[in-house]
Amino acid sequence: MPIALQIATLNDVADLVSLRIAVNERLEAQHGRGYWTPGLTDKGVLFAMRNSSVYVARIQKKLVATLTLAKTKPWSIDKSYYSPSKQPLYLTAMAVDPSVQRTGVGRHCLAEATRIARAWPSDAIRLDAYDADAGAGEFYRKCGYREVGRTTYRSTPLIYFEMLL
Fold it and tell me: For the chain, how big is the Rg over CA atoms in Å?
């Protein structure tokens, strides 16, 4: 099932909010309230679209996944943990619709993100994941990302990952 990522448009904003809320609700149902619980608004999606590249994936026209790539380091990342890089990209806000999780959609999205990053051009993809049962650390490991450190930022335990390109 090949997945193609496309740049999100203003027409995708409501679906992006719905997708992220569905993912957060699933995590809360499975793991209780936590760092993953906060909601998302149209305003937050529009901010991300102005300041980075928000991508979406669809299956039969239904938005089923999203991720964001940016040249700017997110506030939660301490770049001293990462390998030297001249042009890293930061992957944030990855979400896969709960109805298609564990079907390969997330893995395909990361493969597409790698293709996009190489064409950018970029020499690394960096990200963080919650260091908790609700976090996606094991998923990123299985997809070839290397853990480079652990830290706590504003009471939130994080695992840092990278993929060198």
Answer: 15
Residue 132 has a CB neighbour count (10 Å cut-off) of 16
- Where helices occur in 13-159 by DSSP H, the ranges are 13-31, 42-51, 105-119, 137-142
Q: In degrees rounded to 5, what are phi and psi of residue 164?
A: -85, 135
In tens, the pLDDT along 35-50 reads 766 678 899 999 999 9
The model's pLDDT over 48-63, given as tens digits with 9 standing for 90+, comes to: 999 999 999 999 999 9
Can you list the residues of the chain whose pLDDT is less than 50? none
CA dist 146 and 40 (Å) reads 29
Nearest to 24 by CA among 8, 35, 9: 35
DSSP lists the bridge partners of residue 125 as 89, 163
Is 5-164 a CATH 3.40.50.1000 domain?
Answer: no
